[in-house]
Amino acid sequence: MLRKITATVAAAGLLFGLAACGSGKDKDTLVVGATSVPHAEILDYVKTNLAEKAGLKLEVKEFSNYEQLNPALKDGQLDANYFQHKPYLDESNQKLGSKLVFVAGVHLEPLALYSKKVHQLSELKQGATVAVPSDPSNEARALKLLAANQLITLKPGSEEKATPKDVASNPKGLKFKETDAAALPRQLGDVDASVINGNYALEAKLDPSKDALATESAEGNPYVNGLVTTPEKKDDEKIKKLVDLLRGPEVKKFIQDKYHGSVLPA
User: Fold this and answer.
1) Helix, strand, coil % (nearest 5) of the chain?
2) Most buried one in 31, 85, 224, 228, CB count within 10 A?
3) 186-208, pLDDT tens digit by residue?
4) CDD domains this protein is in (predicted)?
5) What is the pTM for the complete model shown?
């Protein structure tokens, strides 16, 4: 009988422990996932310098792989994330069957073309290999950058979802190497040129204002990075407080002072 009671108590303790472990995050703390540069750096600035005064408890969770961030938000591991632009979110929602919401734009990271082998576009040789991000929205964005600089033309109407199959003319016979965006800086020396996302360029110490062969225009650019959350949390007061801070004058100045044009306030 004693053994039975002990077993029952142990089982109850185990269930209590599991319940405690599964009880989730502190409801008063806003947990935001982000890639490291510049997103987590910007959030850390807000957490250290602005959040407490605004009455916001903020926890920043850093992810090395941005493809994990939307699933983590959908599954309830996060309250919000900050790493993506609206075209990527639309594509991700369709893929995941989610309804995540783009709350507010914060900054733009200009996409740019880099090379370790040539110093200007005209030096790209016939048949040169150009690496582009493999995810659909950023691949289209990269091809639009090449088209804007007269390296290729795209089939009319294909621009927003363009792949190499949508290249209408290619005078230099460029070859396209579709590569995971995070790997593009590491593989820069293996190709003739590479179109690299702004955050990964920053991590690799590449400066689009100095090192790029071509940079996309900020004017009318749809690829502004912003805060994303779930439909249930989009009107949450903590989300609203964070949006106000991210779009405020202090963060704008922080971005301008730290990134010198490599990241632009929205």
Assistant:
1) 45, 20, 35
2) 228
3) 999 999 999 999 888 988 999 88
4) PBP2_lipoprotein_Tp32 (cd13597)
5) 0.77
